[in-house]
Amino acid sequence: MMTLIRHSILFVLFFSITGFTAGCATLPNVTEVIDAAPTGQKPRPIVSTKGQLSPLKSKSVVDRLKRSVGPTDVLERLTAVVESITESPLTKGNKVILLADGKAAYAAMFKAIAGAKNHINLESYIIEDDATGRSFADLLLKKRGEGVQINIMYDSMGSNKTPTSFFQRLRDGGIRVIEFNPINPLKARKNWELVQRDHRKILIIDGTLAIIGGINISKVYSSNPLKRKKSATTPIHWRDTDIQVEGPAVAEFQKLFIDSWQRQKGADLFGPNYYPVLKERGTALLRVVGSTPGQANRIPFIVYVSAISLAEHTIHLTNSYFIPDTQIVTALTDAAGRGVDVTIILPGVTDSSLVLHAQRYNYTALLKAGVKIYEHNTSLLHAKTAVIDSVWSTVGSTNMDFLSLLNNDEVNAIILNREFAGEMEKMFAGDLANSTRIRRDQWEKRSIVPKFKEWFVNLFVRWL
């Protein structure tokens, strides 16, 4: 117990001394955003490979989607809210492939990189100097030797254990590499802030294919789930989710990457091949939502709370660092109260006991409201996904904690497609099978010690 207290106090003192500002920053009031969103107004036209569709054709696309699922107003109402806070268009004609775990994601990444002809843009919170990281480095250097332009941006804090020599090898091979917001203030480009981190994971190939989600470049995604008690030598498997996107939405991921690159004063990225003419590859509607620090840019947070608040039938949520603010907790409990099936899967295996205690602090209120809570127990759950009303899905990098919601650069894809939502539901069912349900009667009988730990750590949630 005393160790927990000492660690918490030292943690807070460290970030107070270094200028951590999350404690005084605030999240937007989403109820006000929803109320202010225009109702009855025609949504912005959907974007296709040939430009904007006419209002009539845009309506026809949405009507077809609505007819493919059960009755729900989440499509139109949520579209109005999202379009009131972002200029990112809703695009049609996208092919979206679900990559449900690190092995599938890495296989797709290596295949995409090997097929690159013009350029590769890679943005990742963590790039480790391990077997996985070196495999990526070797292939990227090979492609650079073939004349492919390669631009890499990694986060200074996320990759702080990776030796400088790892990135210098890439630079020596002709790859352009940027360290996002260096921890060392003497290396900072401007307006240094320790907690402003680039938590995105984006790979773009030739401006025509993008892979995004929660998966970093690290060997932890390549091990196997635990089917028995973990031994001291057994690495913890990280369970995560990415998607591969082809179609007009790729241009929106490209814009996010280039904007971040320019903000970090990277070399000019130019040439017509960065924004090639894109063809329709599938049937999914997709919107890209990104965030950068600042209250007005908390778009993934607003999207999450709005989607939960407007759900009518089901909310199936998976999140890795679940330290929600009161708006998220209220939205979940209200949804359960109006009869929505609210089921969430959270980590039971963790890389941070403090975060696990903070996560569990909210269980009592959620369970009382009828929210079904499961803890994943064969892997360290790192996925950030949701599927709502069997038609609205999101996959991305945004955790439901204050670091993601207030400070980080994040990116999520919103996919409107019945077939893809069905794949998400199957993945969710698979995760449920590897999880243990938290029962209210058993939870309320736990001893005073874990209750105190949860209460105490919750005092410092904005610093976790």
Overall average pLDDT: 87
CATH superfamily of the largest domain: Endonuclease Chain A
Count of extended strands: 19
Structural class: alpha+beta
Number of helices: 16
Q: How can the largest sheet be summarized?
A: 15 strands, mixed
Q: What is the CATH architecture term of the largest domain?
A: 2-Layer Sandwich
Count of the separate structural domains: 2
Instruction: Please mark out the parts with pLDDT under 50 across 5 or more consecutive residues, or reply none.
Output: 1-23
Radius of gyration of CA atoms, rounded to a whole number: 22 Å
Give the overall silhouette. Answer: globular
> What is CATH's topology name of the largest domain?
Endonuclease, Chain A
Largest beta sheet: strand ordering: 6-5-4-7-8-10-3-11-18-17-16-12-13-14-19
Taking the alpha carbons of the first and last residues, their distance comes to: 18 Å
- Could you tell me the strand content as a percent range? 15-25%
The percent of residues in helical segments reads 25-40%
CATH class of the largest domain: Alpha Beta
Characterise the protein shown here.
With 464 residues, this protein is an alpha+beta fold. It has two domains: 270 residues, Endonuclease, Chain A (2-Layer Sandwich), CATH 3.30.870; 179 residues, Endonuclease, Chain A (2-Layer Sandwich), CATH 3.30.870.10. The protein contains 16 helices and 19 strands. It has a 15-stranded mixed β-sheet with strand order 6-5-4-7-8-10-3-11-18-17-16-12-13-14-19, sandwiched between helices. Strands 1-2 form a two-stranded antiparallel ribbon. Helix 11 packs across helix 16. The chain starts with a helix and ends in a 6-residue tail after the last helix.
